[in-house]
Every structure is written in C-alpha cells, then in structure tokens.
C-alpha cells in the first residue's frame, strides 16, 4: 500500500481543511496553529469495479494470494433497511493487490478468498460487527487486528474509524454514506468510492497503532482482545426478544404485554418474508400505542393515531388479528411483567435493600476499577466486562481466595491481562465485605 499522501501528492486527490483549535489554548490561539486534516476524496488506485462473476472472483483470489502482508477488510450491511445483518459488499486491500470490491449477492460463497488468505492477518475496524456476516459468505479470518479495540486500549477519546484515522494519521474520511441502504443495485459510484476509502489506510493505521500499543506495553493485551473477538461464539438466541420493543418497560399490564408480543411476532414474520427491517414494517411506537389502546376491531385500530398512515392501514386486518390473539388468551398464558427468570444479578439500584454486603462489594470494586481505568488509560468496559464484575460481586466464589477469584474471572471470559489487572482488586473487595 502506498505511504500516506502529503499535501503535495498527486496520487491521491485531496484537499486540506482546518480542524478546531485546542480548547486548552483558547487564551493563546496566536501561539498554536489550527490542526490541519488532509481530507481523502479518492482512492489512490481509483475505484475498482465490483466483482460479480466467478471468473472475476477467481482472478481476484489469485491477486490476493500473490499479495504481501496483512489484508484490510470491511463489509457493508443494510441495517435498518433489510431483515437481519446480511453483508451486501465486501472490501479488501492488500499490498501488491490493491483494493478489491466483491458483491456477495451473486457470489455468496467466498471460501476461496479465505483459502487464499490462510495465515494472513485481517485488519478490521470493529471486527465484531463484520465477522458474523462475513462468516455467512464462508469468510473466516486466521488472525485479526482490530483498530477500534486498539484505539480503546490506547485510551483515545473517540474510537470511530474517521476519528482514529484523523488522530493517528492526520487524514479525514468522509462518513456520509455509512448508513445508506447497501442492498441497492446498482451501487452508486459515490458509495463505492466511500467503501474503497474505508480500507485505503487501514494497513498504515494498523502499523502506527501497533507501534503505539507496543510502546505503551499494551500490545500483548491487544493481541488477546483480537483473538477473543475472532473466536467469539455467536450469541445465544435472546429469550423473549419482543421485550426489546422501545417503550415496553412502561407497560405493567399483562394483557398489554401480550399484545406487544403478538404484534412483534406478526411484524417479524412479515419482515422476514419480505426481507424488510421489522421497524420499517411497523414502528415500535405503533406497537406500544396498540397495546395501550387495546382495540377490539379494525375500525378502532385505525383510529389509533400511529395506525393512521397508508401502509399501516393497508395491513390493519393483519395487525388486528395479532391483537385478537392476545385479547383471547387465558390469564395463565399472559406474559409475566417481570420478564423471564435468568441467572443474572438484579439491577444494582436494588442491591442495598436486597444484600447490603453485595452493594458494598460492588461500590468498592467500582471505585477501584475507576482508578485502574485512569491509571492505564483504558475504558472501564474494556478493563472487565461490567456484567462479569456485577456477577462476581453479587455471588462471590464459595472460597474467597485470590486463586478462586482468578478462576471465576477466567470462567466468565476475562482475558489473561484482565485477570492480572483486576483479580487482586476484586479479591480485596470480596474480603472487605464478605
């Protein structure tokens, strides 16, 4: 990959725009020049054609195999437009290969790409967002470098790709197409330009970030985090997914909750059958409005303000059938207002009443974690998963020893560096408030 262009480079068209002045220098702005960011507007090698045939893919696989060094990888989805998290564009860039754009709709099996890159490090920004969708195309990384996780471990204030690229490389990436409908065909040229730029500087960003992590003594931590995200198991199916409808926690009537559940089921089935994001089929606010009104007929339903639009009125009979199912359920089949039983601790706000010792343990541990976070410039949630911290404080090991605490953390998925940093603190918290 070519080195980062400067303002005199002709290989990458660009423009220079001033950034904001440092707020700490507000009283002496004449002594501190404004930060300048070089805005990237075109990929160094231009925007490549999108690969859509097996013959084109085979040529690209040979080129990727002949390349050197790590490969930068990104994927685009149609979140909020289509059902699920399917990948609609795959971008790769490798030294000696250049940038490759692949349309996984006509090319759903990309296992040959994985074979060509066996043993090669894959560079992502926020790998956890892309890896599940890529796996559906049989794309599996041998090794991962995640620049978003690296930015977190370095303690950067902002960890989005554009912000990290600006801070470490002094380059600007436009992000205006990040939330578009990537299932659109053909993809507009300006979207493809955006997609190509997303992998344009990832390799250089990785190299600078790795050097900074090593200088900070955190490269080993980062490598453990990268491997953890690479091997992360798919999440278990959510129990009662309908309880995620926005506003449902304000309902305390079981019949109303049943309406939410049946409408959610009907919406999800329709969204899946038509490949449309469920929120576009029927918004959450409409579900809550119907559950609150409990209409007994299509006429009553369409008088609910949220169901007055043309699309919802056309499907009013479908929604009313779902509501009728909920209204006809016997009391024994209505959902519980408290939700399903889990092994998770209760909300911390009730700990003081239910178990004062546990509340004291959590307060002690949180204060210590805040100190560790500041000392190592690592966000609290990256020092230790908050849910794991709460679980250990709510239900400590049967034997309060340092070894037992370390084992509990490992069982909960903590990496070795996290155990080393936090086990002693948690051991103290458990001992102080046994």
From TrEMBL:
Domain HRDC per the UniProt entry, residue ranges: 253-333
Pfam families per record: DNA_pol_A_exo1, DNA_pol_A_exoN, HRDC
Record's compositionally biased regions (Low complexity): 1-17
InterPro entries, per database record: 3'-5'_exonuclease_dom, Exo_C, HRDC-like_sf, HRDC_dom, HRDC_dom_sf, RNase_D-like, RNaseH-like_sf, RNaseH_sf
Any one Gene Ontology molecular-function term assigned to this protein's record: nucleic acid binding
Region (Disordered): 1-29, 333-353
SMART domains per record: 35EXOc, HRDC
Segment forming the signal sequence: none
GO biological process: nucleobase-containing compound metabolic process
Protein's name according to its UniProt entry: Ribonuclease D
